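Is this the right way to post structure tokens for a design question? Let me know if I should format differently. Anyway, here goes:
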């Protein structure tokens, strides 16, 4: 095992033991419950959003989500403009993520790393991180080879998980919950 692989393994083990943002907080803008039926991993994730002045033009309406309510991780859930072509006037920021769940070290560590990565970012950046992580999980155990590897920070440590197809769903579980919770929060804010 290379020193880089050892470092990645240590990052995953550290986050599995010391789960960041663990414990549900009240006042969430959106929530999602996801289960991996293959292994029984599950997560209830809440996203806390500072909408600021986003209510005056918002996200462009519910039509800008491309079917977001189902937590589709295969495509970008959030877009910068709705069908009307209106651009986002103020991007809501993720002020925090809180979660509870159980499962394997990979699922728990992935949620912990994701929580750190997306807290403080705007929702479109968080969605881009989720898409980059999904791409990493389908890249057959190789780095993406572009700026996304660095942007993912500790989440890039999961690159080796892609070599084990049965574990990819474990790593993606929290990211699916994030996208679903964001979509629900933004639809709720628009209504």
């Amino acid at each position: 095992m290379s020193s880089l692989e050892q470092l990645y393994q240590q990052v995953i083990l550290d986050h599995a033991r010391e789960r960041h943002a663990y414990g549900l907080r009240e006042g969430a803008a959106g929530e999602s419950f996801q289960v991996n039926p293959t292994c029984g991993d599950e997560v209830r994730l809440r996203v806390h959003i500072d909408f600021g002045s986003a209510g005056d033009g918002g996200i462009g309406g519910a039509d800008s989500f491309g079917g977001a309510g189902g937590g589709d991780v295969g495509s970008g859930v959030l877009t910068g403009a709705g069908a009307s072509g209106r651009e986002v006037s103020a991007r809501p920021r993720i002020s925090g993520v809180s979660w509870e769940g159980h499962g394997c070290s990979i699922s728990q560590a992935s949620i912990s790393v994701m929580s750190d990565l997306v807290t403080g970012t705007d929702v479109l950046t968080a969605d881009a991180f989720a898409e980059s992580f999904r791409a990493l999980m389908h890249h057959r155990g190789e780095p993406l080879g572009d700026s996304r590897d660095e942007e993912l920070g500790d989440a890039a440590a999961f690159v080796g998980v892609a070599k084990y197809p049965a574990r990819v769903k474990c790593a993606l579980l929290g990211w699916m919950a994030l996208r679903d919770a964001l979509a629900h929060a933004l639809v709720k804010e628009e209504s």
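Format looks fine. Someone answered above. Worth noting: Residues 143 and 159 are 6 Å apart (CA to CA). The helical segments are 3-17, 105-118, 123-137, 147-151, 165-190.
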